[in-house]
Amino acid sequence: MPEKHEKFLRLAEVRNRVPYSRSTIYQLVTQGRFPKPLNLGARAVAWLESDIDEWIALRIEKGRAIAPVAPAPGNGKSRAGSVGKNRAEVSA
What we know:
By secondary structure, the protein is an alpha+beta fold. The chain has 4 helices and 3 strands; from the N terminus they run E-H-H-E-E-H-H.
């Protein structure tokens, strides 16, 4: 079986995959909430594609694990059509 080669993603490619600006990505890296880039040279960094894919998968998993929000309490009656009416007209 051939060995899988890792792909490096530069910042522009990472930004195409996640909804964050450059500064937000680096802030999250500093906070330990986003994968750290690898140094490629004196002024070049890149992220491993597998690290970004794993981070995205974890965000999806966490988002789906959040319990659904319960509906607001009420009597079940719709208030549609009550716009512009005063309380006496609505309750009549």
